[in-house]
Structure formats: C-alpha cells, structure tokens
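Propose amino acids for all 533 sites.
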C-alpha cells in the first residue's frame, strides 16, 4: 500500500483553496453555457447551423490540421538528426529547435509582415520584394514556426528513450532501414506525436493574435469581432462554446488514440541508446535543412524586429514604452506570485493524497489552461457583468484570469519538488509538538522554494506575452507590451511596434532558458505530458 493511500482526509487549509480554484475555473464556464441557452429554439437553430458557422469551423479545422502537419514535418527531421546521427553541433541545433518559443505567435506574425511587402525588411536589404504574408498561408507559417518546438521536444525525448535492441532484432531478421523506421520506430513515437500535436492544436484553437494580424477568420477571430463590433452576446457565447467543444474534442481524441496501447518493453533489463548513424552523403542536405530552418524560424524574425527597431526608433516614444512595460509588470507580477501560491495546495493534494476528489481538484486546474483564452475571457466577462459588475474591466479581473489560466504551468515544478520531499519530515515535525500547518512550513515548505521560484518565473513570463486575455479583460486605456505590438501591427506601423516586440522577445528568451534547464532535468517533459492529459 502506498503512503498516499494511508493518509487521512486532507487538511482544510489545502482543501479549501483547491475547492476555490476549481469553482473559480468552472463557474464562468457554466454561466457561459447558461447564457448561450437563453436563446429560443428557433434562434439557436439559426445560430448553430448558419453558413458562417460552418465556414469558421472549416477554417479553424483546416488551420489546426495544417499547423500540426507542417510542425511534424519540421520537428521530426530535427529530432532525428540531433539524437540518432553523428551531426556536429548537436547542442547548438537543439537550442535552435527550442528558441522559436521565444518568439510568440503574434510577434512572429509581426516579423513576417514587416519582412515582406514592397517596404519590408527584405526589400530594403536585398532590393527584392517578398509577397505579403496574409490569410491562411501567413497564419500557417507564423503558427508553424512558433509551435513546432512542442513537437520537437516530445519527439526528441521519445527517440532518446527508445530501446534500440528491438530495431537491431528487426534488422537481424532482414528488415531494411526504412522498414525498421516505419514498422518499429514510428509506431513507438505515437505518444510523443499525440502529446505534442495536442499542445499545438490547443495553441492554434486559442490563437487570436496571428489570425487577426493575418486576417484569417477562425472561431477565435470571429468571437472577438462578434463581441466587440456587434456586441451580439448570444452568438459570441455560442462561438465560445464551439471553440471549447473543439478543444475538448482534441483532448478526447488524444486520450482515445492512446487507450489500451502498450509502448513499453515486454522483457526485463535496461534499454540502451543507439549508436550514431553516419550521415555520409546526406551530410550536406542535413546541414542545408538545419540552416534553412534556423534562418526562417529564428534569424529572419529577429533581423526584421531589429531592422524596424533601428530604422524607426524615436526617443520621444520612450515614455509610451515605459508605460506599456509598467502595465505588463503590474498585472504579471502579482499574478505570478498568486499562481505559485495556489499551486502549493493543488500539488500537495495530488502528490500526498490518492483520493479521486483530490486528483480531480488537481486536474481541474488544467481546465483553465486547456480552455481557449478568448472563450475563457468571454465567460469571465459574462459572469462578472451579472454577478460582480464592479470588477469588470479592472486590473483585478485580469490578474484573476492570468492566475486561473496559467495555474497548470505553476503546478508542475511544485509537484516535482514535493516528490523529492519525504512526507516523513512532516511526521517528525508533528512528533516534536508542531501543529500540522506549522509542521508543513518548517519541514516541507523550505524544500519547495526552488520549485516555487521556477513556477513564479514561468507564470510571470507567460503573462507578460499573453494577448487575448489582456485585450478583452484589461481596463480601458490600459497598455501592455503585447497589446501595443498587436495594435501597431494592425495599422502596419512596424517601426512603432518594434520596441515592444523586441522587449517581448527578450523576456520570452528568458522563458526559453528556464525551459531548457527543466528539459535537461526531465521535468519540463513531465509538465507537457500532464498538461496534455
């Protein structure tokens, strides 16, 4: 019997905050559902089955499938080259495979728009005009370059963990290399593709910045325009529910595909790594592919941002930049500390207690993360206007939204630290006369500090670059780095947007640095898999 199965009921000082978090996530979504069904039957039929709804569904599905497919085509060769071949500079190219995460989707879209066109960076530097990136292909390129690292991280980890003795057995039986890859290796990579593909799909469904800048209509973009332009709450509520249904379908499909599948070794012993494959005559094509990928996903966007920064820098706009930076910090800082604090009770219940209620409370935090941001923002708007109108469009509701949405990112590091802290320490403290809560503070909490620091940094940096929640929930006239990048780019004011984009790039690079540290310790992969479930 495990230790968690012998524990009594969880203490109220952990249980109550966990209940509050679950309620805070679910209540707005429930109210959104109630609000959507307030319409009469005839109106509901007209809303759900109108031609525009089918058009939006087709666009959204087409973009999600396209980004997942192109992401797999970018990630798979990179993962293979950096894990199974004698490629030189493996660490550098691994870093380059993760670095695109430092360029948020809307910043990538800004860079592509600033790079192309008759007055773009490419035309200024080389005298040749690149076609303007717009519509489906513009959104596909921007989102593919931003999200393919999620697939790369998962596939790379899976390749490093495969047992090569199975492959060697297949070769000894006469199978060719391409047959071994198709019949042995590729099927074992399915969980990695599903987990990475799920993350990519959720990002595409929840994206607003890229599709709005590229003028490609999806559910997220239509939800925003429907709410802000015509203020049709019923149709906006149904668009949000449809977006939620698509996200839920992705989660269900991923779980369904993995159900009752076995991917571990049947025998005993320890799996060993593969011997590097000599690239030989494929060396030049491999390095050409890698150079092209790095150039397109990292170098070109960064050059475009820096080009417009140098070309259009105006010291008189420094005050506006500092105000936007201050706005980002005012919301991100308290949200980061609050989220890290709430992650403690949820992680504690999930690690120390095995009851279905405790597991459900911990898993409930991931609902806010899996919910597309615009749908979650709209649910909060409807709920606050009806229940607590005083907090509508205040800084408090924005911090609240950040906290619930990014809570899943904070739980992982705290949970990892709890697994390394023996529960016997608290028992010893209680045997010395300390009450339960004080025993936790004395014995366990000091061991969580490193995990809490990582959680706080994760949430802070994620909130700094968050766009959809900020755009709908922030106070009137409130400016942040993300909002200003989007606002200036929609008006094709690339020089004015450059300082804000560069600041986000720097902050996001810090996030990628933390990501790489956690990937080295095999912790970030655990977080990804947990979020994917």
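Proposal:
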């Amino acid at each position: 019997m495990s230790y968690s199965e012998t524990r009594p009921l969880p203490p109220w000082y952990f249980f109550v905050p966990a209940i509050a978090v679950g309620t805070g996530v679910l209540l707005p979504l429930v109210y959104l559902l109630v609000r959507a069904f307030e319409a009469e039957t005839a109106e509901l039929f007209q809303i759900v089955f109108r031609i525009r709804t089918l058009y939006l569904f087709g666009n959204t599905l087409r973009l999600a499938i396209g980004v997942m497919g192109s992401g797999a085509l970018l990630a798979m060769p990179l993962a293979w080259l950096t894990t199974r071949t004698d490629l030189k500079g493996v660490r550098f190219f691994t870093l380059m495979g993760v670095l695109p995460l430092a360029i948020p989707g809307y910043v990538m879209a800004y860079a592509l728009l600033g790079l192309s066109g008759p007055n773009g960076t490419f035309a200024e530097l080389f005298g040749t005009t690149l076609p303007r990136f717009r519509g489906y292909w513009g959104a596909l390129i921007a989102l593919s370059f931003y999200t393919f690292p999620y697939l790369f991280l998962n596939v790379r980890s899976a390749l490093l963990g495969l047992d090569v003795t199975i492959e060697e057995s297949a070769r000894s039986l006469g199978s060719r290399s391409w047959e071994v890859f198709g019949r042995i290796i590729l099927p074992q990579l399915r969980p990695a593709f599903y987990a990475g593909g799920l993350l990519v799909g959720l990002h595409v469904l929840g994206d607003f910045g890229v599709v709005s800048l590229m003028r490609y209509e999806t559910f997220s973009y239509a939800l925003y325009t429907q709410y802000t332009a015509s203020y049709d709450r019923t149709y906006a509520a149904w668009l949000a529910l449809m977006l939620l249904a698509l996200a839920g379908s992705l989660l269900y499909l991923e779980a369904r595909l993995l159900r009752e599948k076995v991917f571990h070794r049947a025998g005993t012993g320890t799996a060993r790594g593969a011997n590097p494959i000599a690239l030989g005559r494929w060396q030049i094509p491999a390095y050409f592919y890698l150079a092209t990928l790095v150039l397109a996903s990292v170098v070109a966007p960064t050059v475009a941002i820096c080009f417009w920064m140098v070309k259009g820098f105006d010291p008189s706009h420094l005050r506006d930049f500092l105000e936007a930076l201050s706005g980002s910090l005012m919301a991100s800082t308290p949200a980061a500390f609050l989220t890290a604090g709430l992650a403690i009770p949820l992680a504690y219940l999930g690690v120390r207690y095995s009851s279905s209620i405790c597991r459900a409370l911990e898993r409930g935090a991931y609902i806010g993360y899996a919910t597309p941001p615009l749908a979650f923002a709209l649910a909060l708007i409807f709920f606050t206007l009806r229940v607590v109108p005083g907090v509508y469009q205040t800084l408090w509701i924005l911090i609240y939204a950040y906290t619930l949405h990014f809570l899943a990112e904070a739980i992982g590091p705290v949970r990892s630290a709890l697994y390394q802290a023996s529960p016997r320490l608290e028992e010893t403290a209680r045997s010395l006369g300390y009450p339960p809560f004080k025993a936790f503070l004395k014995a366990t909490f000091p061991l969580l500090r490193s995990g809490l620091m990582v959680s706080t940094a994760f949430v802070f940096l994620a909130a700094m670059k968050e766009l959809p929640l900020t755009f709908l929930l922030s106070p009137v006239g409130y400016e942040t780095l993300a909002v200003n990048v989007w606002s200036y780019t929609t008006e094709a004011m690339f020089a004015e947007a450059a300082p804000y984009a560069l600041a986000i790039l720097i902050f996001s690079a810090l996030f990628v640095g933390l990501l790489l540290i956690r990937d080295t310790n095999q912790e970030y992969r655990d977080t990804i898999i947990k979020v994917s479930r």
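The chain has 26 helices and no strands. The chain has a mean pLDDT of 81.
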